[in-house]
Specification:
By secondary structure, the chain is mainly α. It has nine helices and no strands.
Length: 187
Amino acid sequence: IASAKEAIAMAPRDPRALTLVGLALASGPGDPQEDVKHQGLEMAKRTLFKALAVHPGHNRALMALVDIHAQEKNYEACVGLLQKGLDGSIYAPKDPIDQAQILYRLGVMYSTAENYKEAIDVLQQASVLDPGLSDVQRQINRIEKIMRGLDPNETGDEIMEDSSPSLEAPMAAIMDDLHTDQSIRNK
């Protein structure tokens, strides 16, 4: 939280600073009280929506918001947010690589919600936009095994598992970006 406060102090309208605060609120202390954790997640969502309002194409804020909904197992909200990120609405990024990442995450969410055909369709679109997105083919193979009634974890292949993403790596990356930008501005 201290790093997040520092980021907001340095750049109060920077979407990266707002995203950092949202990530800090979402990861908050592992308080055993559900009400406290729920309040932190709700505050994190509001902060991340604010980051998207400041910079509509900010992919990190969108993905962090999707991560929070995924942690709550609200896959319908994840799909809705990701679709808004693709359909030209306020969250749409211009960069094809960002669009590919959104398509990939949408495919994972469809798969998690057991909408396998939709998952494969959007994963294939992601692969076309960014052939370097290495997890796409593993995810498609995993879904195809599930659709055939096979256990996707049975073979020795490195098959991607759906899991709750960690919020620590994005927070560190945002802090590095902010410190770099601040040092450039001070020169």
